[in-house]
Amino acid sequence: MIQTYSLTTMSEVVRYWEDFAVGDRYPTSTRTITDDDLDSFCKLVGYDVPLFVDEEQAADSSYGGRICPSHLIMSVATAMTGRLFSESLIGLLGLENGKFLAPVHPGDSLSTEVEVIEKRRTSKPERGIVIFRDHVLNQDGVEVFQIDKITLISCREAG
Predict the structure, then answer these.
(1) CATH architecture, range 7-154
(2) Would you kindly state where each structural domain of the chain is located, as residue ranges?
(3) SS (H, E, C) 26-92
(4) pLDDT tens string for the chain (159 positions)?
């Protein structure tokens, strides 16, 4: 049976490989991206692209103002999903199918819905693989980013 969980439920429980079922969905908290977030991120990584740092020049673009770099959106989305498996995560094995679907501007509020799309055991009985699809939505419910995260998760019981 496919489940949709509440934000409260997401943070209250330690989830192991056995607890995830394909089709389950987990919401996250909401985070508003500020001008300071954008400026700090660009300074940290050395982005000097006018579309990200120059409001006047970006205003003349097809976006009508500054937009956030893709890696800022990926970083925020990853941080939002951490509570879902923070106690059982062994490692992140890969990222696949990343799609930037709509621009994100400073002032946009983002939330992530995490969908379980696949799971399987590994050759080691104390761990399994779960593939999560992050659906990142803005304040209007528009999906702005999507990515699949391949994770190695602890099992509650070996075998």
Answers:
(1) Roll (3.10)
(2) 7-154
(3) EEEEEEECCHHHHHHHHHHHCCCCHHHHCHHHHHCCCCCCCCCCHHHHHHHHHHHHHHHCCCCEEEE
(4) 555 555 544 556 789 999 999 999 999 999 999 999 999 999 999 999 999 999 999 999 999 999 999 999 999 998 888 888 888 999 999 999 999 999 999 999 999 999 999 999 999 999 999 999 999 999 999 999 999 999 999 998 765
